[in-house]
Amino acid sequence: MEVNWLIIWDFIPQLLKGAQVTVHITVVGLLGGVVLGAIAGLMRAYGNSVINAIAFVYIEVIRGTPIVVQVMFLYFALPVLASIRIDPMTTAVLAIVINAGAYIAEIVRGAVLSISKGLTEAGLAIGLPRWKVIRYIVGPLAFRRLIPPLGNQFIVSLKDTSLFIVIGVGELTRTGQEIMAANFRAVEIWTAVAVMYLIMTGVLSLMLRMIEKRMRIL
Amino acid sequence: MTDPIIQFRNVSKHFGPLKVLDEVDLDIHKGEVVVLIGPSGSGKSTLLRCINGLEQITGGDLIINGMSVLGGNKVLREIRQEAGMVFQQFNLFPQMTALQNVAFGPQEVRGLSRKDAREQARELLAKVGLADKADHEPSELSGGQQQRVAIARALAIKPKVMLFDEPTSALDPELKQEVLTVMRTLAAEGMTMVVVTHEMGFAKQVGTRLIFMEHGKIAVDGHPRDVIDTPPNDRMKDFLQHV
Fold it and tell me: Is A84 left (phi over 0), alpha (psi -120 to 50) or beta?
């Protein structure tokens, strides 16, 4: 079969729909992942031994297992274990939340711990309660250091959505697969899919770079 | 004599198996300028940091202005408002200007309005000779200037005692003086001060009391001029020759 780039145009609407699903899973998943990661990261940085251990186990379990296994577990094992049945789309979002959350927790912990202990002491020494030290002094400083590694994780998570093909979520990769199965245009379709991922990660990178530029790293 | 403002009663501090403070008894009264010296590891910084609870004592009791450091978080915050602290590394909040550094405490801790806190901060910056640096960020200031802002920040919460943890050790010789000058002024105004330092000149001129610490205990406690000129023991004599 001859390579014919023009046929890509016929499938652009379909691919865009797939990309839309990808963006949806990524955005909602990462929103949840940031919240979960912030909580788990703060638990690691400030919690007593019990709280710390809970967060530690969560992070290690997630970081130590492949995300595909996590997805399979959520989708196929959870219904058996707890008779909780969730649809593929919810599974996908949940998987990103849980998976990204673990990595973001480590990013948050690292950023918080990178802020000199002396600043915390200086805050406490003027009589601030600990939460105000975290909220007004350590937090804003840690946040700036958070941006670069967080951006990295966002890009990783966006690409991770491609493996939801295994539970039949109609995201971009799955859409490409379906088109390909019908017309066998492997070169054209996978090129188009790759370019679409590049555009999405590119936009994400650009946004992060803009945020970084506006924020001085102290 | 009035009740001491700081009372160490049989205070011990362990870091794991390591005993850093060994059953220390010490009374500090209003208006005293106590200079703490001693070899590294003798417990002088730890003693200072126990006063405002940055280190928790593991034995005995420590009473600041009638409040025990063992009284829980709320009491500890009140103690910290009575005992301002200046650190060796300044520890200014880097995301805030000099003025914001000084105004932050009164606003968040003492509940001053933003306007009053800023006004007071301006006065304090003027007092430490930095009125013109109010809007500078810490990174734009020299070490000596940063330390003077840090002193103003500590003063802003209106403490009854000022604690200085080697305030000039991180500074170049010519910058030490501007910080020491501010400290002299404070002492002259009658501020109660506890100062960990290696500045023997300052100790002699400004100190009303000198404590030499060794192995977590107070080895010498006397008038600075007396004990510096004629050290009562060989360890201190030896130490003084090396500062």
Answer: beta
Query: B194 pairs with which residues across the strands?
Result: B34, B163
Q: What is the pLDDT of residues B41-60, one digit of tens each?
A: 899 999 999 999 999 999 99
Q: What is the ipTM of this complex?
A: 0.93
Which of B87, B108, B153 is the closest to A118 by Cβ?
B87
Contact: A119, B93; criterion CB under 8 Å: yes
Distance CA(A135)–CA(A60), nearest Å, equals: 27
Nearest to A52 by CA among A112, A142, A135: A112
Question: Does the beta-carbon distance from A129 to B91 stay under 8 Å?
Answer: no
User: Which DSSP symbol is given to B231?
Assistant: -
Any alpha helices (H) in chain A, and if so which ranges?
A: 8-46, 49-63, 67-72, 78-82, 88-114, 117-125, 130-132, 139-160, 172-183, 186-214
> Which residues of chain B are within 8 Å of residue A136 when distances are taken between CB atoms?
104, 108
The structure's pTM equals 0.85
Mark yes or no for CB contact B84/A126 under 8 Å: yes
B83: nearest Cα among A125, A118, A124, A123: A125
